[in-house]
Amino acid sequence: CRESQFYYYGIKFALSAYATLFSLLGLLLLAVGIYAEAERQRHRTLEGIFLAPAVLLLLLGSCVFLVSFVGMVGSLRDNRALLRTFFWVLLLIFLTELLLILVEIIFESKMNEVFHSNLQEGIRHYYDDLDFKNILDFVQEKFSCCGGDEFRDWEVNQYHRCNGSGALACGVPHSCCVRGAPGGVVNTLCGYRALDKERLELLGTIHVRGCIHAVGLWLKDNFQATLAIVCSLLLPQV
After folding, report:
1. How far apart are CA 108 and CA 90, in angstroms?
2. What is the Cα gyration radius of the chain?
3. What number is the average pLDDT over the span 123-138?
4. Residues 30, 32, 34, 40: is their CA dihedral positive or negative?
5. What one-character-per-residue DSSP string does 182-216 give?
6. Buried-state track 52-86, b at ≥16 Cβ within 10 A, e below 16
7. In whole angstroms, what is the distance from residue 82 CA to residue 78 CA?
């Protein structure tokens, strides 16, 4: 009897601690999302609501907090109805994530088309949304890529179109540039008139491959890191 009580309180404490931790994480994501969304609305940035990182943070934070809060209250109050709800919602989320992973693996080309379409929409509003601009610049620099499918995706941006008249016309952002020695001076005009040239002419000047392919290759080349990321997302729900 004493041993069964020990297991009971051990499981109860572990579940309460787990749910409380993720409730706090959800609140943190929610707070960051609210702040970012307030800034987005203040500056009247990207109109495509699901392209805005702030909206994604709000949705993720709300979901994590609500589900974890139900589990926390259910475990503390020994409420079977809440615990059952917590279990079934977690199971549904877990199965949905597995399904999305399988869909990505099986329909890789179709998913790439969806990513490409969304990236082009983001590139179209590149200078209107500071959040998206910073994220895309980071990805292009980190993964040595440019655009979604290729560097010519930048033609959809009104400032980079070849029929434009500004200094950016027919060019690409400096985050597409091939970096020299670490700490060296970055040539921010390296992408000038790049869209007028062929791929071979640009080797050594800008990155010509798209970020969808670059990130995909990185995930395949770093399979262990990819597996660790997937497990870190799925294991807490098991």
Report:
1. 26
2. 23
3. 85
4. negative
5. TTPPP-TTTTTTGGGS-HHHHTTTB--B-HHHHHH
6. bbbbebbeebeebbebbbbbbbbbeeeeeebbeeb
7. 9
Query: What are φ and ψ of residue 134, in 5° steps?
Result: -65, -40
Cβ neighbours around 194 below 10 Å, total: 22
Is the domain defined by 110-218 classed in CATH 3.40.50.300?
no
* Helix segments in 78-210, DSSP class H: 80-106, 108-124, 130-142, 199-202
Do 60 and 31 contact (CB within 8 A), yes or no? no
Q: Round to whole Å and give the CA distance between 22 and 26.
A: 6
Beta strands in 42-172 (DSSP E): none
CA atoms within 13 A on the CB side of 152: 4
**CA nearest neighbour of 210 among 166, 150, 165, 129:** 150
pLDDT score, position 55: 76
Q: What angle do CA 170, 172, 175 make, to 5 degrees?
A: 170
Residue showing tokens 């297991």: 7
- Mean pLDDT calculated for residue range 4-30: 80
225 pLDDT band, cuts 50/70/90, is: low
Of the candidates 184, 169, 176, the residue with the CA atom closest to the CA atom of residue 204: 176
What does DSSP assign to residue 149?
A: S
Overall size of the chain counted in residues: 238
Instruction: Give 219's DSSP letter.
Output: H
- Separation CA 202–CA 192 (nearest Å): 11
The 8-class DSSP code of residue 179 comes to: P
Largest distance between two CA atoms of the chain: 82
